[in-house]
Amino acid sequence: MATMRAIDIKDGTGPVSHLFMNSDIPKPQPGKSQALIKIHAFGLNRMDLMQREGKYNVPPQGGKILGVEFSGVIEGLGSESDFKIGDEVFGLAYGGAYAEYLVSSTRMLIRKPKELSWTVAAGIPETWITATQALHLVGCFKPGDNVLWHAGASAVSIAGIQLAKAAGAKSIFVTAGSDDKIQFCEELGATKGFNYHKDDWVKGVLGATDGHGVDVTIDFIGKNNSQGNFEAAAMDGKIVQLASMSGSKLEAGLDIGLLENKRLRWEGSRLRSRDLDYQHKLRDLLVEFALPKFVDGTFQVPIEKVFDWKDIQEAHALMESNQSKGKIICIVS
Hints:
Blueprint: E1 3-9, E2 19-26, E3 34-43, H1 46-52, E4 69-77, E5 88-92, E6 101-105, E7 109-111, H2 118-122, H3 125-138, E8 146-149, H4 155-166, E9 171-176, H5 179-188, E10 192-195, H6 201-208, E11 214-219, H7 226-232, E12 233-241, H8 257-261, E13 265-268, H9 276-296, E14 303-308, H10 312-320, E15 327-331
């Protein structure tokens, strides 16, 4: 049986120190409507940390190998396709990107334009598709809406700031944990940012909108932000919950009266557990609306650091530090 190298986890789950290179992983084979990709680069996402720690509900098709976004070259096809062997692609998978080879549905592959590097291409699929989903499909964004992105310097919010601006947002607000991150977000197109260590972001948002509030809120924080999200929301506002980094169990005393009085919709969402048809629709939206803007430079994919995948422990440690602004990418060497 053919084998390959992949990043594995000692004992199945654990801290950063449990990550190691395993040279005896079975090489996958493409089935019908699938392609075998020789990976050039893969992007890190916070779900990878959670999966490594055993705190993420991995879908059955995800497998044990981490990683969902990648760039690479098609080396094999399970059936006839619009793609061919040798095509340079990037895309989204349910798992398995921390490896030399990955099998992906051809429906989730995107041809890599020559203007994009392998590293930039590997940093697009998960974050930009997630941001598109949160803003448009779940958040029901309309031109002229005010939008609030929490964790503003995270890769998803970096994408979201740019998507909201291009789609005609009236104002784009962010929260982040340092003035440096706030400045970074404002340079990307955010109207105003708030350092949650020292600013009252609820008061700031309401003041900047003459009391109207935000129409669409995208939150990754959870417990610490829930009451504030209710208070900062506009009438008929949408709150999209993508993660719960501060905890998922809410404090006693959360006032849901605002949820009723403002007719708010508070909806959780997770991209990885969606079926292929749903993900394919988002892939098509990305290709139609965002890909040309990557090519002409309108949309930026800031990269914090590029690692050799042999240094995967350092890459995970950097993401855990919460100091990064933009994507962390690994090159498969």
